[in-house]
């Protein structure tokens, strides 16, 4: 599909705080994600040249196409942040977050709170569109609550204002991440606009990807929490969509390769001490369900250097070989 003039395939990596930093985005692209997103970045932080925000906004060539997602509620501030982001970080797409349900974000009138004010949503989209010359997309939720399922209305408004695609997380803001996603809302949005609609919510497997696309007729699927420890879900889903066959899961050698690759990029980005410390959670996720995973995770959670990680893998390979 095309988002403006950007060609992308139909499986997207969702923006997730503390997860979708550059190293993980590189991994997701290697595994077949058609589009990756920065974690949601504060418009104010971008304008103030906040160092942490700038680090999270940097995009490697290996990630492209990549979208930079911003949040805020002041149209002029969102427009300036988008303009500065295009100039400094060169994303392929600017994505506007109208979907975050975090209480801190809602208190600031941003994220899902914007769904309650369609005039504000319109002002933000129009302002951002005028400030950049790259595609602008919008991520929303089904609505604020069960009584205000206004995703179709907001999507139509976004298209009218020039947005080139819209992603719908099929839960309300008040649901946060609880309960079940109502995919019928995605279908309603798809039927009301001509721009690509991307479905999101409760996609945990390749079968879910196909079922969402069949049921909603959405142009693509955004995958979030299911990628934690399993970025292979993109390549597996691509194969399943193409052949109807369920591909095999990665073996220890493949998991080791990916963990070392990501850890190396984390160290390059943040230094060894911080990079390895932040890599602990990822390493633990990668080995969920693995034989002896509980003990292995405890060991990984104590690692402090790349040398520690290599040593842990050597011990684990020896254990597996002996067990075999």
Q: Report low-confidence residues grouped into runs of 5 or more.
A: none
- CATH topology tier name of the largest domain: TIM Barrel
The number of distinct structural domains comes to 2
What is the CA-based Rg, rounded?
Answer: 20 Å
Shape: globular
Class derived from helix and strand content? alpha/beta
What does this structure look like?
- With 324 residues, the chain is an alpha/beta fold.
- The protein folds into two domains: 2-243, Aldolase class I (TIM Barrel, Alpha-Beta Barrel); 252-323, Non-ribosomal Peptide Synthetase Peptidyl Carrier Protein, Chain A.
- It is built from 14 helices and eleven strands.
- The protein has helices at residues 22-30, 43-47, 51-57, 75-89, 103-107, 118-131, 151-160, 184-192, 206-216, 233-243, 252-270, 272-286, 293-300, 306-323; strands at residues 2-3, 6-7, 11-13, 36-37, 41-42, 66-71, 93-98, 136-143, 165-172, 197-200, 220-223.
- Strands 3, 4, 5, 6, 7, 8, 9, 10 and 11 form a nine-stranded parallel sheet that branches.
- Helix 4 (75-89) links the parallel strand 6 (66-71) and strand 7.
- The model has no long low-confidence stretch (mean pLDDT 93).
């Amino acid at each position: 599909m095309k988002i403006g003039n950007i060609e992308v395939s139909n499986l997207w990596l969702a923006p997730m705080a503390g997860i979708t930093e550059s190293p993980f985005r590189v991994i997701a692209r290697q595994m077949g994600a058609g589009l990756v997103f920065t974690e949601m970045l504060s418009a104010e932080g971008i304008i103030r040249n906040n160092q942490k925000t700038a680090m999270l906004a940097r995009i490697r060539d290996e990630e492209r196409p990549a979208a930079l997602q911003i949040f805020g509620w002041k149209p002029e501030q969102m427009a300036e942040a988008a303009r500065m982001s295009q100039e400094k970080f060169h994303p392929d797409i600017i994505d506007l977050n109208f979907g975050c349900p975090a209480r801190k974000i809602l208190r600031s009138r941003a994220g899902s709170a914007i769904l309650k004010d369609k005039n504000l949503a319109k002002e933000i989209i129009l302002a951002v569109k005028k400030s950049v010359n790259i595609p602008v997309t919008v991520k929303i939720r089904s609505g604020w609550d069960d009584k205000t399922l206004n995703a179709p209305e907001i999507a139509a408004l976004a298209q009218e204002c020039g947005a080139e695609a819209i992603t719908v997380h099929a839960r309300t803001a008040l649901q946060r991440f609880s309960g079940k996603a109502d995919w019928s809302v995605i279908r309603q949005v798809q039927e009301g606009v001509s721009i690509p609609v991307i479905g999101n919510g409760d996609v945990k497997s390749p079968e879910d990807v196909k079922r969402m696309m069949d049921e909603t007729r959405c142009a693509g699927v955004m995958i979030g929490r299911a990628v934690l420890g399993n970025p292979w879900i993109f390549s597996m889903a691509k194969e399943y969509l193409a052949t109807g066959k369920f591909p095999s899961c990665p073996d220890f050698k493949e998991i080791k390769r990916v963990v070392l690759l990501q850890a190396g990029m984390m160290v390059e980005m943040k230094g060894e001490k911080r990079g390895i410390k932040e890599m602990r959670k990822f390493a633990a996720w990668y080995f969920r369900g693995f034989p002896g995973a509980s003990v292995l995770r405890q060991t990984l959670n104590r690692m402090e250097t790349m040398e520690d990680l290599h040593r842990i893998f050597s011990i684990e390979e020896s254990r597996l070989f002996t067990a075999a």
